[in-house]
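Entry 12.
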Amino acid sequence: MKITEKRHHRAEMTPEAKALRELRLDKGLSIREVCKQLDKSEGFLRHIETGRRDFPRKMVLETILKVYEATYKMFRHRVTAVMEAESKVGAKEELKGLIDQLTEDKVAVVMSVVKGLLG
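Predicted 3D structure (tokens):
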């Protein structure tokens, strides 16, 4: 039985996809160069990086990582870094949205608290 990854009409770029893309760009590799070495179509990697295709199984991922001269451990470390960066940005965006809902008096209170935290 052949197992294939699903394609999606709606792209959802996961932290894994972002990490994989960052590793490729860090090496200065184009999608075309990587896919030529993998003997895959450019759409294969492009769809993985944009979330239009399920993230590859570990065996396929390790083959891609070899082209990037990266280990699975390096990849997982990058995924963690992407997730941490996203959570920081997410929290800041959430805070901005909450502040927009406050009255001017409450904004002044939040301002004084933040200034106190900054020292």
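Annotation: Residues 4 and 85 are 31 Å apart (CA to CA). The helical segments are 15-26, 31-38, 42-50, 58-67, 72-100, 104-118.
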